[in-house]
């Protein structure tokens, strides 16, 4: 019954390759297999096979190239769990050449944890916003307070919430808060008082929590939020006050378009429009919004930031709607020509 540390990675840039090296090199120091840990990297993007050869890493990883199949997360997990892997190595699963969002790798790692009867599963982004040592501190804290057969999910609290902002036309801290409000409204309003940091890039779940998770028909970007909602709805315990230090973020795969897509998927799955969320946020900012960005701002300034997010999100979704309509027209024209 291993404890799994899973990384989600999009291998596509010089930094992401360095992050992969750091994962492999840091495993023995921070999550050694002899202490009962298994490190699994759920990877999309570039095929790392030649990179492993070039960097002489092939003896430190067990590599599974499942990308040509383009199979479901469940199917890939089943094949991996039946594979003959060397436990002292980092397990690297290349599941697709294209990025599929955040839900697929999370679902893949949860299925693996269930199939291997893992006691606990940590899922971390690979950008090391939280250093390896901080991830281990959180895992140790989780293990000290959570039993495998209790429904528990641990979210560390970032100090500060380090976010890359260079290419963003909106306030990312405010956007995170709006996304978190879906969790509040769809699960348990009692968590409002402490405002958990649901999007730190790290979550740790127990075996009991993993068994109840279901990602059927969940949008490609909202798996993390959906996971929190399911755990809270099933009377699970949130371990949410463990503070971690963050590294500055200089690169992020979560751009403005992705955040708009998340809002659209939340609406499609849960049928709560962003306008409802925005109205609550501007009426009760002290209840729903964190003070790491609201402190020192007037109510009018906060409202302007929130309304700008809503305006730009609506504009983005309208442009996407028009693109879909044009695409549908093109398909129809092609069918008519074919029939002729």
Structure report:
The protein has 340 residues and is α/β, with parallel strands linked by helices. The protein folds into two domains: 3-161 and 197-254, Spore Coat Polysaccharide Biosynthesis Protein SpsA, Chain A (Alpha-Beta Complex); 256-340, no CATH class. The chain is 49% helix and 16% strand. The strands form two sheets. It has an eight-stranded mixed β-sheet with strand order 3-4-2-1-5-8-6-9, sandwiched between helices. It is globular and about 55 Å long. Helix 3 packs parallel to helix 4. The model has no long low-confidence stretch (mean pLDDT 93). It has helices at 14-30, 49-54, 73-81, 103-115, 132-145, 172-186, 207-212, 223-233, 256-270, 274-283, 285-288, 291-294, 299-339, and strands spanning 3-11, 37-45, 61-65, 90-96, 120-125, 152-154, 157-159, 202-206, 237-239, 243-245. The termini are far apart.
- CATH class assignment of the largest domain: Alpha Beta
Structure class: alpha/beta
- Count of individual beta strands: 10
User: How helix-rich are the residues, as a percent range?
Assistant: 40-55%
Shape: globular
Beta-strand content estimate? 15-25%
Under the CATH scheme, the architecture of the largest domain is: Alpha-Beta Complex
Please tally the helical runs, counting DSSP H or I stretches of 4 or more residues.
13
């Amino acid at each position: 019954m291993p404890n799994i540390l899973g990384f989600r990675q999009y291998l596509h840039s010089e930094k992401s390759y360095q992050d992969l090296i750091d994962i492999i090199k840091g495993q023995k120091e921070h999550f050694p297999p002899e202490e009962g840990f298994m490190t699994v990297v759920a990877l999309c993007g570039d095929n790392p096979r030649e990179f492993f050869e070039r960097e002489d890493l092939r003896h430190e990883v067990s590599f599974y190239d499942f990308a040509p199949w383009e199979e479901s997360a469940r199917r890939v997990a089943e094949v991996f769990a039946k594979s003959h892997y060397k436990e002292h190595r980092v397990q690297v699963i290349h599941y697709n050449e294209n990025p599929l969002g955040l839900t697929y790798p999370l679902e893949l790692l949860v299925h693996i944890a269930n199939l291997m009867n893992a006691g606990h599963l940590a899922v971390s982004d690979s950008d090391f916003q939280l250093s390896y040592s901080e991830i281990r501190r959180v895992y140790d804290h989780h293990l000290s307070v959570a039993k495998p057969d209790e429904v528990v999910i641990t979210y560390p609290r970032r100090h500060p919430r380090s976010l890359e902002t260079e290419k963003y036309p909106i306030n990312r801290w405010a956007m995170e808060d709006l996304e978190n409000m879906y969790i509040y409204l769809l699960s348990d309003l009692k968590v409002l008082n402490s405002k958990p940091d649901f999007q730190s890039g790290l979550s740790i779940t127990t075996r009991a929590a993993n068994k109840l998770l279901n990602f059927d028909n969940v949008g490609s970007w909202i798996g993390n939020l959906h996971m929190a909602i399911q755990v809270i709805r099933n009377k699970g315990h949130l371990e949410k006050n463990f503070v971690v230090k963050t590294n500055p973020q200089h690169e992020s795969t979560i751009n403005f378009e992705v955040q708009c897509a998340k809002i659209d998927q939340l609406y499609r799955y849960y049928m709560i429009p962003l306008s409802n969320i925005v109205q609550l946020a501007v009426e009760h900012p002290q209840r729903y919004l964190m003070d790491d960005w609201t402190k020192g701002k007037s109510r009018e300034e906060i409202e302007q930031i929130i309304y700008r997010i809503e305006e730009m999100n609506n504009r983005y979704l309208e442009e996407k709607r028009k693109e879909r309509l044009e695409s549908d027209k093109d398909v129809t024209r092609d069918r008519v020509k074919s029939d002729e």
